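Input/output pair, single chain:
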Amino acid sequence: MHEPCRPDVSLVVPVYNVEDYLPACLASICAQSLANIEVLCVDDGSTDGSAGVLEQAAALDGRLRLLRKHNGGLSSARNAGMAAATGRVVMFVDSDDMLEPHACETVTAAFGDHDADIVTFGARLSPPGSGDVWLARALSPRDAVYDGFGLDLLFKERSRPYIWRTALRAAFVARAGLAFDETVPFGEDQVMHFAAYPRAHKTVLLSERLYVYRQGRAGSLMEGRSHDAAAKTNDHITIVAHVLEDWKTLGILGHHAPKMLVWALYFVCHDIMRLGPPEQGRLLRRLKQVLADSFDGVSPLERPETSALTRRLCACVEATPATGPASRLSPLLVYGWYVEQRHMGTAFARMLAAPARLPHALAGVVPPLKARRLRTAARHASAEEATNQEARAALDAAYRKAQAAGALGCVTWEQAQQPEPYPSRS
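Output:
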């Protein structure tokens, strides 16, 4: 039965010291083409003028509800908003970002058309062109519908990170007992996505860009963490620990153990490798303990789908002593393993084994030592090998430079990534 007094959408807006950005955020929400919404603005102990902005906005638009609490962090603020929400659908908007005018209308239509538990949509960056290529791609999902759960939803689709691009049916939130983990100080979006997608009966991905993500705001949590590599890596290990523990409790970790082991290593090993000896040893010890606790009784290394390089990388982590200095992770092993995981080995080897001039073009873009490492990794790469984001960016630049110099003829970067024969270019 239709409930005329119930909002179609509850928008949860956590607020902390964003008085300069908050007016634009609230204006974009109040201008939504769907009028039947409620806006739950959670003031998480702001010390600037944010509270005054919220009070003025609430006086102008009765759909805004102001919730005040002591500072507890982003997850705590979002949980407070979710607990107070009365709408059929829950959406999240960070207080320095904005919504496109038809966002709520489009999302509710997707829920209605597909009877979905989750709808995840695209976003654009502000200012345009900010951020890296990876981020722009990650925020650009295709149109797709998943009945039930499959690993492809997490690992092949562009369905994460950032929970503000994911809307949840309120009944699903209650049924699944979803809440943000307040013990995770950074990356709570990842933990929520890994918790929500496996529990959903149906998930819809929308290619339409409905959210405007402001990049590089001074004082933001993301900006602060980007300058502390050790703290960021430690946070990533915390995310891994919470995700694996949740999947173990849910009873699905054993079935997906090899892939989840790869994900855990992929998420942290490159960052650990780049740290100095004291931090690297400390974080390797922590990662070793997390993997031991999470995969106890599951044994992903004994599965046939676990590659030899994955076993070698795990052996390096396992060899970390309980005390004292740890052996440094070999960059050659780590880069070679990333090459394997990103399914770029064929293109990698083809590029480096192409005309003789190509290695020289590569050396002109990548420092000589790294170029040698990449070439060595490529020689050992199978058709299933790949590169990490840093290596891929370097190779992409090298490829473009070599192509501009005529070293590759008419072969495009997209063609180089395809198995033989090259696809026709109709």
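The chain has three domains: 9-223, 229-329, 335-411. Residues 350-366, 379-389, 405-426 have pLDDT under 50 and may be disordered.
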